[in-house]
């Protein structure tokens, strides 16, 4: 073997050793990175479980005092212990409204905790959409006291029956309608349903309210997200209603959307399958 060839072979062997050493170092780094990611994933899972337990425990603990307060309010409004002055009745009704809002917030927190822990069951069944709309209309009629605002339910076109969890769908629409009524001083809130694409249906809640700036739309369905607006300072809420609606829509195999123009109004939509698929039902167990 010539000296040149021998020197070239030695250089090649040195390069191979250097490459092997570099690969081993890279592998050790990758293994360490995977270990760190696994640890962080475990910590995140643990933190999520703790948060879900806290929300569930807190929600259950709040139910007793809320229920007791509402029971006392009903006794006062029924004049069981005697008549009330007009001012006393106004204050008692304020307490009632506040407690009912608080109760709704607690329900949202509990549902979010159940979803995150995988304990929220989905129970699909066939039902008539007009029955759903009639129930929602009856629910909001007693609280719709603004003479300049109309709540309109359009008759569904092209489809009458739906196979999904009607209670969870109604919960999504209640959140959309409630928000629309809060942020609409005059005009109308219109609820509609129409077939969209193959085997899907879109429920839309359109209002003529204050609208939402475009920069706020991407985060609107995040937990505790609220639009910064002058009217928001006068309205209570946790910002959980829309986040919960998105989670519920996902459970039903659908999604949520929003379109809005400041000063003109907003349209909140939930798109769900006309017939919930067996795979989605199995995933919910």
Outline of the structure:
With 285 residues, the chain is an alpha+beta fold. It has helices at residues 3-77, 86-116, 129-140, 166-182, 241-251, 278-283, and strands spanning 125-128, 149-153, 161-164, 187-196, 200-207, 255-261, 265-273.
Q: Could you give the count of β-strands? A: 7
Tell me, briefly, the overall form: elongated
Strand content: 15-25%
Give the total of domains: 2
- The arrangement of helices and strands along the chain is HHEHEEHEEHEEH
CATH superfamily of the largest domain: Histidine kinase-like ATPase, C-terminal domain
Can you give the mean pLDDT?
Answer: 81
CATH architecture of the largest domain: 2-Layer Sandwich
Structural class by helix and strand composition: alpha+beta
Q: Strand order within the widest sheet?
A: 2-4-5-7-6
What's the alpha carbon Rg, rounded to whole Å?
28 Å
Largest sheet: 5 strands, mixed
- The top-level CATH class of the largest domain is Alpha Beta
Span from first to last CA? Answer: 73 Å
Instruction: List unreliable stretches of 5+ residues.
Output: 230-237
Number of DSSP helical runs:
6
Helix content: 40-55%
CATH fold topology of the largest domain: Heat Shock Protein 90
């Amino acid at each position: 073997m010539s000296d040149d060839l021998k020197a070239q072979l030695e250089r090649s062997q040195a390069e191979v050793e250097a490459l092997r050493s570099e690969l081993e170092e890279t592998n050790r780094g990758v293994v360490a990175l995977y270990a760190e990611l696994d640890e962080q994933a475990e910590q995140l899972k643990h933190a999520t479980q703790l948060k879900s337990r806290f929300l569930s425990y807190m929600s259950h603990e709040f139910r007793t005092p809320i229920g007791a307060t509402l029971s006392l309010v009903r006794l006062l409004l029924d004049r069981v212990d005697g008549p009330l002055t007009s001012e006393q009745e106004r204050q008692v009704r304020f307490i009632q409204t506040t407690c009912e809002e608080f109760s709704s917030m607690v329900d949202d927190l509990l549902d979010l905790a159940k979803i995150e822990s995988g304990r929220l069951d989905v129970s699909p069944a066939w039902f008539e959409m007009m029955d759903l709309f009639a129930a929602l209309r009856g629910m909001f009629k007693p609280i719709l006291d603004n003479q300049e605002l109309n709540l309109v339910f359009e008759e569904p076109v092209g489809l009458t029956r739906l196979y999904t969890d009607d209670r969870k769908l109604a919960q999504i629409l209640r959140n959309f309608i409630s928000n629309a009524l809060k942020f609409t001083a005059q005009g109308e809130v219109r609820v509609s349903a129409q077939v969209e694409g193959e085997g899907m249906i879109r429920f839309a809640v359109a209002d003529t309210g204050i609208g939402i700036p475009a920069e706020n739309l991407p985060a609107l369905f995040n937990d505790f997200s609220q639009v910064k607006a002058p009217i928001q300072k006068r309205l209570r809420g946790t910002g959980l209603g829309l986040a919960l609606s998105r989670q519920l829509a996902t459970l039903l195999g659908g999604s949520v959307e929003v379109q809005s123009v400041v000063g003109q109004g907003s349209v909140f939509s939930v798109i769900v399958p006309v017939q919930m698929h067996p795979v989605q039902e199995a995933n919910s167990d």
